[in-house]
């Protein structure tokens, strides 16, 4: 039998608690999920949860951070696989809205996290806006997006995506809202694109 070192055991415990927390928060919501749901789901004690995350709120924050990182990786993969930068940008925007229908993102990131942890941190917002601004600037340099203020444009697009994703997540059946949001967003973004026929 292969013996694991302490660092591997710590990482394994943390990963099991994150997985149990994610499942419980998705299924039950923050208020209804109990410490026993997390520890029993992970086969661990409350002491392990307190040691790694402090409390239930700390576990929620860690789960949100994990989901955010996964979302960013998925969005980056879409950009990287796109045939050109405009399709990559549009694909990222479209996927962000589609993610609002995934149960864990919908329940944890868009519903529970704002209620329990407060609005998205200013630091996180600034990171997202800066990333979008950089993408838009590259598109401007390529002559794909009009010469508008990239910071203002990034803030407007980010705001629209954020608000639309919350609107989609609040619906019992968000498919219609997703379709409406995608159609409207495409029209909005075409307004900032340089006409390729000119």
Automatic annotation (TrEMBL):
Residues 34-53 bind DNA. It holds the Pfam family TetR_C_41. It comes from the Bacteria. Residues 11-71 form the HTH tetR-type domain. This is TetR/AcrR family transcriptional regulator. Keywords: DNA-binding.
């Amino acid at each position: 039998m292969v013996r694991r070192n302490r660092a591997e055991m710590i990482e394994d415990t943390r990963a099991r608690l994150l997985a149990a927390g994610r499942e419980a928060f998705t299924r039950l919501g923050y208020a209804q999920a109990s410490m026993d749901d997390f520890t029993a789901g992970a086969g661990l004690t409350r002491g392990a949860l307190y040691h790694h995350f402090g409390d239930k709120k700390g576990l929620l924050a860690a789960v949100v951070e994990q989901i955010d990182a996964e979302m960013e990786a998925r969005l980056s993969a879409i950009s990287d696989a796109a045939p050109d930068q405009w399709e990559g940008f549009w694909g990222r925007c479209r996927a962000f809205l589609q993610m609002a229908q995934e149960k864990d993102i919908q329940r944890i990131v868009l519903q529970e996290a704002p209620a329990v942890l407060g609005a998205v941190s200013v630091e996180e917002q600034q990171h997202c806006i800066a990333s979008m601004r950089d993408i838009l600037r590259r598109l401007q340099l390529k002559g794909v997006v009009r010469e508008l203020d990239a910071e203002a444009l990034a803030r407007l697009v980010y705001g629209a995506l954020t608000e639309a994703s919350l609107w989609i997540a609040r619906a019992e059946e968000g498919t219609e809202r997703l379709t409406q949001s995608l159609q409207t967003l495409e029209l909005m973004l075409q307004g900032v694109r340089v006409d390729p026929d000119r």
